[in-house]
Amino acid sequence: MKAWAALAGAAAPALRWHLRRRAAAGKEDAARLPEREGFGAARPAGPVIWLHAASVGEALAVLPLADALLAAAPELHVLLTTGTVTSAVLLRERWPALDSGRATHRFAPLDVPAWVGRFLDGWRPDAAAFVESEIWPNTLAALAARGVPAALVNGRLSPRSFARWRRWAPGPARRLLGGFARVLPRSAEDAARFAALGARVEPPADLKRAAPPLPADAAALAALRAAAGGRPVWLAASTHPGEDEQVVAAARAAAVPGLLTVIVPRHPQRGAAVAALCGGAGRRSQGALPDAGPFHVADTIGELGLFYRLAGAAFIGGSLVPHGGQNPLEAARLGCPALMGPHRFNFTEAAAELEAAGALRPVAGADALARAVRDVLTVPQAALEMRRAAAGFAQAAEEIPHRLAARLLEMLRG
């Protein structure tokens, strides 16, 4: 760990240059670059808990926990840090607590000892919690040196990372994870991996199950519904290279009269290529709405909530190729029947439980996807049962943020 601290300190000038380069490319907020070096503290009176989430998905997942903390402790102030411009924009749009005076957003300092030290000395948090895989040696060491308890929330450790730690660096892994007063893992599988590396592990709870439904602009949704004109619609959400061809083949083989297939590529820059694959389909990034054609490409960011509400079924991308699958819970929270391929290792337990509940149907390839789309869109009872199962699953997850908030407040007060 000392070697990492020395390396990070020596790299500070290069990291400063790298941040300026990212800002020039629009990947950092140029006006807020000092925050990445720990400047900009404005500590309020009273207890402060620091929550850190890397990017958009983690930030949105942690919002119910942040709100549960604020509700349970009226004297508390939540400092939420992230590392991306997009996450900052979405928090401003979706987190009303920022206007209440009880919550603050900052960009997280990079894991440079001097920068982290400046941040901690300015904010003086009473406790800290990091989301999923945000495990930074210098930050944890600085918190420990100041006597600030830290937790890992929704802790995630992939099989590959676990194998590497256990084989090549079990001692450093034990010391690093020992910096957490408690690890609140995402799943039983993650809990077992963390425990095997020596972490203090508590019962698992997947915070992403309790994330609020993806938002949707009412006017935009009305425009999409008018453009669809009552046609049956299915969504291919967050697709990856190698899946779009299968989605197009499935749409054509489904043989559903008037079918409209909406494809949302995981990376919007692939929009032109996906549209060409669909025979020149209209692209939302170019201002197009669905037309009489069989395909529409929604190559924008932050609009999945619109299309889950529009669609009668949704294929969850990243699951027909070995990416591991995107989040099927987003569909469940909006009562949209989910179809998912065999590659689910990013959401193994959630997908298995959704399938067992009847809210998710497995598909092994284009042929199975075509059959599933046809069944869900043409058999009303099948779709109704899947929607009811999804709603019940989502409702059962509502208590998770409150349970985790209670554990973090015990750490803060203890």
Secondary structure blueprint with pairings:
Elements: H1 2-10, H2 12-24, E1 48-52, H3 56-72, E2 77-82, H4 85-94, E3 103-107, H5 113-123, E4 127-131, H6 137-145, E5 150-155, H7 159-168, H8 170-177, E6 182-185, H9 188-196, H10 218-228, E7 233-239, H11 244-254, E8 260-265, H12 271-277, E9 282-283, E10 295-297, H13 304-310, E11 313-316, H14 329-333, E12 338-340, H15 348-357, E13 360-362, H16 366-378, H17 380-396, H18 400-413
Parallel strand pairs: 1-2, 1-4, 2-3, 4-5, 5-6, 7-8, 7-11, 8-10, 9-10, 11-12, 12-13
Verbal overview:
The protein has 414 residues and is α/β, with parallel strands linked by helices. The chain has two domains: 22-206 and 398-413, 3-Deoxy-D-manno-octulosonic-acid transferase, N-terminal domain (Rossmann fold, 3-Layer(aba) Sandwich); 218-396, 3-Layer(aba) Sandwich (Rossmann fold), CATH 3.40.50. The protein is built from 18 helices and 13 strands. It has helices at 2-10, 12-24, 56-72, 85-94, 113-123, 137-145, 159-168, 170-177, 188-196, 218-228, 244-254, 271-277, 304-310, 329-333, 348-357, 366-378, 380-396, 400-413, and strands spanning 48-52, 77-82, 103-107, 127-131, 150-155, 182-185, 233-239, 260-265, 282-283, 295-297, 313-316, 338-340, 360-362. The strands form two sheets. The protein has a seven-stranded parallel sheet, sandwiched between helices. Helix 3 packs across helix 4. The mean pLDDT is 94.
